[in-house]
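User: quick one, fold this
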Amino acid sequence: MRLQKYLSQCGVASRRKCEEIIRAGRVAVDGVVVTEMGVRVEEGARVLVDGKPALREAEKRYILYHKPMGEVSTVSDPEGRATVLSRFRDFPVRLYPVGRLDYDTEGLLLLTNDGELTQNLLHPSREVDKVYLVRVRGDVEAEALRGLREGVPLDDGRKTARAGVRVTRRTGDEAVLLVTIHEGRNRQVRRMFDAVGYTVLMLRRVRFGPLALGSLQRGQWRELTEEEVRKVKSL
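Assistant:
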């Protein structure tokens, strides 16, 4: 088995991220640091990542977590902020977030030690739908809605793909919308509304593919049901 696939199956990270870890010289196989792709791991080989053993875990775990604002979606943070894994220090397997939610965004985040699944879900060709509940300042006009649905150029000049946008409530001073996208660009939903002249006051991811946040409260988590796992793997 190739090293990057082995690391992914160990739950170290997605296969693409594992390639970056290898290139950075953080992996050793039987005492030899490896920096090139294509190295094969034979049965019984001792693989270390940052000096710690990378062991293939037979049991895969899948956690649906309601990330609150004020946590970063990374394994560690150089600024010392709380991460989404802070609540799972004593969990029996090492978990990793599938994708990211911004520090000031809350909502559904999938955590797992299934690196292969992580890679599949995040691959752009999968186009997994992500649904956000968005509250913005002001009453969103029809022209802005049309732009959001058809795609808008962001601050980097790249136009977004078509999106599903539905207004669920208007108060005059604010509007609440459901926005469905399948891209994974950095802070995309906030930047989309910035592009059409509206400020996001609250952003919560309520659905990721077949998974729904439901009534799960901020900071709470649960394991996926067997049916949910089957649906996620079928994407």
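User: anything notable?
Assistant: The helical segments are 3-9, 15-23, 115-122, 142-150, 188-195, 226-233.
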